[in-house]
Specification:
Chains: A alpha+beta, B alpha/beta, C mainly alpha
CATH topology of the largest domain in chain B: Rossmann fold
Number of domains of chain A: 1
Largest sheet of chain A: 4 strands, mixed
Oligomer: heterotrimer
Shape of chain B: globular
Mean pLDDT of chain A: 96
Number of strands of chain B: 27
CATH class of chain A: Alpha Beta
Strand order of the largest sheet of chain B: 5-4-17-16-15-6-7
Order of helices and strands of chain A: EHEEHEEHEEHHEHEE
Strand content of chain B: 15-25%
Number of helices of chain A: 6
Number of domains of chain B: 4
Structural class of chain B: alpha/beta
CATH topology of chain A: Alpha-Beta Plaits
Low-confidence stretches of chain B: none
Structural class of chain A: alpha+beta
CATH architecture of chain A: 2-Layer Sandwich
Radius of gyration of chain A: 16 Å
CATH architecture of the largest domain in chain B: 3-Layer(aba) Sandwich
Strand order of the largest sheet of chain A: 8-1-10-9
Strand content of chain A: 15-25%
Low-confidence stretches of chain A: none
């Protein structure tokens, strides 16, 4: 079992619903964002342009620098591939924030700990989709078992252009993007 | 009942889409709001506004009790009063104005959705005033009415999933109608549907287009006419349909000869070859459809000409009411529609004649409405609602308040609307509001407009009210949704308000239904589901989609005087307008006003929807505001460099009407001669003394609404092609 | 797009500086002690105590940087983590340095036991070196912050640490009046060599990163040379840390000159830590260049809006 996500950038229109739904689902303090959506472009000269949007959840890396670096074991990789933070063990040293190349980790000043997207693993365990997947009006997000060749995500991965962000960093993300 | 958990099926009112929502209610308290997977539009999804619904419901700045002004108008001093006291005083004053100045001295302004508008019209018809306004001249209505004049209803239900080509014209569903955008992309993925986007700006939707036509702002009419020219001269039209079901084709053929693609290339800035190629793609990919877009409703005097040319395009290409084409739903046959609730027949002829603007904007007021409804009732059995489709002209209304001409207007009741940010020429609107004897505002928030009111009344939002989605009463389907909770504090629905005020005004016999649910149940009874209550209907039926029928004209004929599609429209001719498609240049452009263009050389697009906001709403929902804290004006890098403007700089946008500032977003999404400013900006965090910063960034303060520049048929003012200049804000 | 690395801020830079200074002051003193060329007892005792104290201060800065200080002991939980290793090096060093220092003070019965002191000193030196080497490896673990990924960071930081250690010892000697010791003259010469070496190392580092493939490394260099860190780089590192001390070598070897020179070197070292730490920007995400607001600005705005709604609510309800 290896939970993964495929985000279809041909679909995303940058509405930020995932950002907001995630904040509410996880009861985040105002201003904290686990699921940012960035605007790429437009690039080129008018009217020959390209642009797309780029949602950025936690990449749930197989080779996760945050888990490697964590001095307390608060950052963990679950057997199903999801990277979580045990808030009870985190000392707030922020080393994981420093080593995460995707900038996904957020420091919660009031609790003094670091938190981030956990792929709504509790929802997944109850057979529900992560909140960002559920709320996506454009159905740009897909979640499933990367190990299962019959899963929807596996089928999508076979499409051309499905690749993770910055594979050269060797982090082996479980989040893939279908680029336009 | 402790521990009761219910899941209520509500509908979101944060835009027209009315997405279905599941509201988890525990002991009468809303705990969670998620998308309803069974709902055909959103299919379980939510946009950011919908996801943040609880922030809206529980925001500590909602207006929760009736407030009465105690200081000077606009000073922002209020005291809490009871509903009884507020209604009693309002009713007393309305009676006095009616007696002294006539019922027409009382007017009302409404907002986009969020209300049951028929109740408002019912109240006003019983009161005897025809002066009901919305922003209808700049939102859908010109297109709807022109189409209705030409083919007897609006073909507003494009069947994208079965279409081979979709034209998205002046519309950006990628930032405004997300379920529609999903439909577009799915149609292409599944069926290879071609997407043509017509937009001066590289929008979210244009970025996904197969063909993007980046026209000069406001030149839509030239493009549509050139398409007609290509399609007719190259004989790409549906000859059978034209032969059997249209009148005026030969005159049309003759008329469009002058509108060659080369002629249009000069007007639109799009190469002639590209115009012709897109026209061929549209005409040869049948069935095709043209989606409605709000931008072409906002071109001032060019507005109805665009709608006219486009309606004719749909017709001659044989796309009307065919599977995969522009489907004309017609009214729901058994449901008691809005028009049947309005009691228009009780408004005397002499009062209809007094409707402000009816003497010049004849299609969107009583003269046109009467002509259209005669035909519609003959063919469909019922007509269009007067709400939206038959309204006074807002620019004429403001001027009547200010000048007392043609007669005094003393009172205005505003619901779900913030005229200071949503109508053009905000300074004039401000002066008009200042001059009123009585201003009543019913709203969720203290808006800049509400700050000026004599009474601010607390409005229930969609979680606190049932919603019946009927597309303003003009579709053949409906969706019923329930309230999640009873209104919190002393909030009320607009129906409750009109009913209570109506009773105070002596209209008791016309308001027999105690609640929204009761009246909805009354309207639904004839559907024959045999359910006892409205809640049963929501839980048991909820969606009532009439079986889809196409080619309805074969049996019924078109609802026009000739029974056919009138390419040369007799109704427009009767009203004194050009019956054939023709070119109109928008009122402000280098071509139309070269003198003005010398001082104001840039074309301003004042509008365009953007996430996460809807119109002027949601600026106080902190979570949403953080996504987009400040207004942005889009400027091409070339222009920015010339003017020494850097990314994020505050920039003045100035027209002869006024100047406001927004922050520079330097982007190649628009060409160098054009800037695009965001609409609807005010700053709820700023002081009441400065009307919540309504003069700082509100682009409507830069727009003109001089009736002479407005559309002659529908009174639309111009927002999408305005002349301006910009400069960096110094210091 | 990060315009500076702001996750680890001044406290962390202060820790790196203090730990390196303290550890290397100690190491130089212990080394001279071991090779039987000690400074006089007063200078060695004061010096090793100050080394201990400065490293201890560094430890406190590190503790202050933690979000959840009460749980700091958990930092020792995971030996695979470089953070845990670093914390362990620091702890061991402090214990050994404390024992070593006690040998120089007569109030302890074991004072003056040379052999024991030197054994402890030797062990202390091992941990001191580990303590100054690990931060380079630690920062090097940040994939996506290429400015730190070069193999040159460890030697650079080691050289820098040694420089600050020598400067620290010379400063102590100058202040305690031990600056006439022959060892100090030698140390002063080594210091010059180190300063020159460091100029070369920094130049090579910057030039290498400027030509590096990853965009963020080039962005880091631009930030240092001409961006928001240009003052701290040119004035702090180059002028204070290197040029002025070199000129001061023309001013003779009086205690005052030595002290001033050392202070400039130390200031330059502090700037080096701070600048290199801030310059380590993260690889930018697609579209990050379009972002207008940094996370901190959003947090400030959120607080301001919420505050306004609170005040407005009171006003709306007539209070």
């Amino acid at each position: 079992m290896h939970w993964g996500m495929v985000i279809d950038l041909r679909r995303c229109v940058g509405c930020h619903a995932c950002t907001v739904a995630c904040q509410i689902e996880n009861n985040l303090p105002l201003g904290e964002t686990w699921n940012k959506v960035l605007t790429v472009g437009p690039e080129g000269d008018f009217p020959l342009l390209v642009s797309h949007f780029f949602p950025r959840p936690c990449m749930h890396c197989e080779d996760a620098p945050c888990v490697d670096g964590c001095p307390t074991g608060a950052s963990q990789k679950r057997p199903d591939g999801i990277i979580i933070v045990d808030g009870e063990r985190c000392i707030g040293c922020k080393f994981c924030m420093l080593v995460c190349p995707y900038g996904v980790r957020q420091f919660e000043a009031d609790k003094g700990i670091v938190q981030k997207c956990h792929l709504c693993y509790e929802r997944l365990e109850q057979g529900e989709m992560p909140r960002c997947v559920e709320t996506c009006q454009l159905k740009a997000r897909h979640v499933g078992d990367l190990d299962d060749p019959g899963s929807e995500v596996a089928a999508l991965l076979k499409q051309a252009n499905a690749r993770p962000l910055y594979p050269h960093l060797g982090t082996k993300p479980s989040v893939y993007y279908i680029f336009p | 009942m402790a521990g009761t958990i219910e899941v209520k099926k509500a509908a979101c009112y944060f835009c027209h889409m009315n997405c279905g929502m599941l509201v988890h209610v525990e002991d009468g308290v809303v705990k969670k709001v998620t998308g309803d997977p069974e709902h055909p539009f959103n299919q379980g999804a939510q946009c950011p506004r919908g996801a943040a619904a609880m922030d809206h419901l529980n925001h500590i700045n909602r207006v929760n009790y009736p407030l009465k002004r105690v200081g000077e108008r606009g000073e922002g001093k209020f005291k809490r009063v009871s509903w009884e006291e507020a209604l009693e005083d309002i009713a007393t004053r309305l009676k006095k104005y009616k007696e002294e100045y006539g019922a027409e001295s009382i007017a009302t302004a409404g907002g986009t959705n969020r209300t049951d508008d028929w109740a408002r019209r019912r109240f006003f018809n019983l009161l005897g005033s025809p002066n009901v306004v919305h922003t209808s001249p700049v939102c859908w209505i010109p297109n709807f009415l022109i189409e209705t004049a030409i083919y007897g209803w609006s073909a507003f239900d494009p069947e994208i999933m079965g279409s081979r080509c979709v034209v998205v014209w002046g519309h950006n569903p990628g930032a405004s109608y997300l379920p529609e955008m999903r439909g577009l992309l799915e149609a292409r993925e599944n069926n290879g549907t071609k997407i043509i986007v017509i937009d001066p700006r590289y929008s979210e939707t244009a970025a996904r287009a197969d063909i993007w036509l980046p026209i000069r702002p406001g030149s839509d009419c030239a493009l549509a006419l050139a398409w007609l020219n290509v399609i007719i001269n190259e004989e790409l039209y549906d000859a059978d349909f034209v032969e059997n079901w249209t009148v005026g084709f030969e005159e049309l053929r003759e008329r469009v000869q002058e509108y060659t693609p080369e002629w249009a290339a000069e007007k639109t800035w799009v190469p002639a070859e590209k115009i012709a190629m897109a026209a061929r793609t549209y005409a040869t990919s049948r069935p095709a459809c043209i989606q409605w877009g709000v931008a072409t409703d906002q071109l001032g005097r060019a507005t109805s000409a665009v709608a006219q040319a486009r309606a004719v395009l749909r017709a001659i290409c044989g796309n009307l009411d065919v599977p995969g084409g522009d489907v004309m739903p017609g009214p729901h046959p058994t449901f008691i529609t809005d028009v049947e609730m309005e009691l228009n027949e009780l408004l005397p002829e002499e009062q209809r004649a007094k409707q402000l603007g009816a003497d010049r904007f004849k299609l969107s007021t009583w003269p046109g409405y009467k002509l259209l409804n005669e035909q519609l009732e003959r063919v469909w059995g019922k007509g269009l609602p007067a709400e939206w489709m038959c309204e006074a002209s807002p620019p004429v209304l403001w001027r009547a308040i200010l000048t007392g001409k043609p007669y005094p207007v003393k009172a205005l009741i505003v619901l779900a609307d913030n005229p200071l940010t949503s109508y053009a020429n905000s300074r004039l609107v401000y002066e008009a509001l200042s001059k009123l004897d009585l201003l009543v505002v019913m709203d969720y928030w203290l808006t800049p407009t509400a700050l000026m009111a004599d009474y601010v009344l607390p409005a229930a939002s969609w979680l606190e009210r049932p919603v019946l989605t009927t597309t303003y009463g003009v579709s053949d389907w409906l969706i019923a949704s329930e309230r999640a909770v009873q209104p919190l504090y002393e909030r009320k629905t607009d129906y409750d308000f009109w009913r209570a005020l109506g009773i105070k005004m002596g209209q008791e016999e016309y308001w027999p239904w105690l609640t929204n649910e009761e009246v909805f149940q009354y309207r639904l009874e004839a559907l024959g589901y045999g359910l006892e209550t409205y809640e049963d209907f929501v839980q048991g039926v909820r969606f009532d989609f009439a079986p889809r029928e196409y080619y309805k004209y074969v049996e019924k004929g078109f609802a026009t005087p000739s029974g056919k599609v009138e390419l040369k429209s007799s109704i427009l001719e009767t009203l004194g307008y050009d019956p054939l498609p023709h070119y109109v240049e928008p009122p402000f452009s280098p071509e139309a006003t070269p003198e003005l263009a010398r001082d104001y050389p840039l074309i301003l697009i004042a509008g365009g929807g953007f996430m996460p906001f809807y119109h002027s709403e949601h600026r106080q929902i902190t979570r949403l505001r953080l996504l987009h804290p400040q207004p942005r004006v889009a400027i091409n890098p070339e222009l920015a460099q010339k003017l020494g403007i850097k990314e994020g700089d505050w920039v003045w946008i100035e027209t002869p009407k006024g100047k406001v500032k927004q922050r520079a977003k330097i982007t190649t999404a628009i060409p160098p001669g054009v800037v695009q400013a965001e609409r609807g900006w005010w700053y709820p965090e700023k002081g009441a003394g400065e009307l919540f910063g309504v003069w700082e960034s509100n682009i409507n303060a830069c727009l003109d609404d001089d009736p002479d520049t407005c559309d002659p048929a529908c009174g639309s003012w111009c927002t999408r092609s305005v002349l301006c200049r910009i400069a960096k804000v110094e210091g | 797009m990060e315009d500076k690395q702001a996750i680890w801020g001044r406290l962390a830079a202060g820790y790196f500086f203090c730990a390196a200074l303290g550890a290397m002051v100690f190491a130089v003193i212990a080394f001279l002690d071991i090779i039987s060329s000690p400074l006089d007892g007063k200078a060695s005792g004061t010096g090793s105590f100050l080394g201990l104290a400065v490293a201890g201060l560094g430890g406190l800065l590190l503790l202050a940087e933690l979000g959840n200080k009460k749980r700091f002991l958990l930092v020792f939980s995971r030996m695979q983590s470089i953070m845990t290793k670093g914390a362990l090096f620091l702890a061991c060093f402090i214990v050994l340095a404390a024992i070593y220092t006690s040998f120089w003070f007569d109030i302890f019965p074991w004072a003056g036991a040379n052999a024991g002191r030197r054994v402890i000193g030797f062990l202390g030196i091992i941990f001191a070196v580990a303590l100054v080497m690990y931060p380079g490896l630690e920062l090097g673990e940040a994939r996506g912050r290429s400015f730190w990924n070069g193999s040159a960071l460890v030697p650079l930081w080691l050289t820098a640490a040694l420089t600050s250690g020598l400067a620290g010892v010379i400063l102590v000697a100058a202040v305690t009046g031990a600056s006439i010791a022959p060892a100090i003259a030698l140390l002063d010469k080594i210091l010059l060599a180190l300063i020159v070496t460091k100029v070369i190392l920094i130049a090579a580092y910057i030039m290498g990163m400027r030509r590096a493939a990853p965009e963020e490394a080039r962005r880091s260099v631009a930030t240092l040379l001409s961006g928001s860190l240009k003052n701290i780089f040119w004035w702090g590192i180059v002028v204070c840390g290197h040029i002025i001390p070199c000129f001061l070598y023309f001013g003779g070897s009086g205690a005052g000159i030595l002290a001033i020179k050392s202070l400039f070197v130390l200031a330059g070292e502090a700037c080096l830590r701070a600048a290199f730490l801030q310059a380590g920007v993260r690889v930018s995400l697609p579209g990050e260049d379009n972002e207008w607001y940094q996370e901190e600005e959003i947090a400030v705005l959120a607080a301001r809006l919420e505050q306004t709604w609170q005040e407005r609510a009171a006003w709306l309800n007539g209070k």
